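Worked Example 4.2. Consider the chain below.
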Amino acid sequence: MDKVWRFDEDFTRNYTTARQEVIGKFLADVKDTMQLASALDLGCGVGHFSKFLSDLGFRVVAVDGREENAAEGKRRYPEINFVVKNAEDPSLPEIGTFDFVLCVGLIYHLENPFRTIRSLHSLTGRILIVDAMCAPVDDPSLRLVDEVRGEDQGLNYVAFYPTEACLVKMLYRAGFPYVYGFETLPDYSLFHASFWRRKERTIVVASREPLRTKGLWLLADIQGSWEILSTGRERWRMRLLRLWSPASRLGRWFRAIATHEDRKSA
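Applying the procedure from the previous section yields the following structure tokens:
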């Protein structure tokens, strides 16, 4: 009897399709204009996103830490180069540099996510997209969790989940000068807050050059060395500063109103 892969379950496939729609729309805007030709899919599983990139015309290298995942990916998509490599291995950048790097569903499965983000910076020639679960807290911090066992989890089943603020800050500190969020995230519950639950997942774009693609907004670089030790009052002050920053949604809303009023009075 053939193995039933968790990557092929209805939940995972629907969720994969929702993410591919958003990522595909972005790549349709930038791939040709920025002459993106090579791509790396880090944490590829059995290759669903690797095949997606290949179909878009990229020369793809797919990397996974589990030999059985890479072997299954190679069986399904023999035209793609699958490599077995631990994402936390410091030698990971030796694979090379790629115009576009995709890291979907990986960062939050790692014991050392910042180490891997530094490697991603080395691997990325122009643009990186990271999709990740995020701990539902405002501060730039990591939460240590124990994972269930499965071929789509971390290699050691223990991981640090970053908050969204932490993910953005790690990308800036790794050396990316520009980190963007999507105006419209996938139409899937995990990407959106509701009355009952906070937003649990995000997709961000890190770039070595400014992007003028519609549908992106520049995320604030969160400053401060002692945030984790600050008092409750100081934490609220920092949250208000982020809320009113030019890159925040509220800040952009007030700028739009101000611009509109200026036009009316002109």
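The beta strands are 38-42, 59-64, 81-84, 98-104, 124-133, 142-146, 158-162, 178-182, 201-207, 216-218. The chain has seven helices and ten strands. Compare this with Example 4.1 before moving on.
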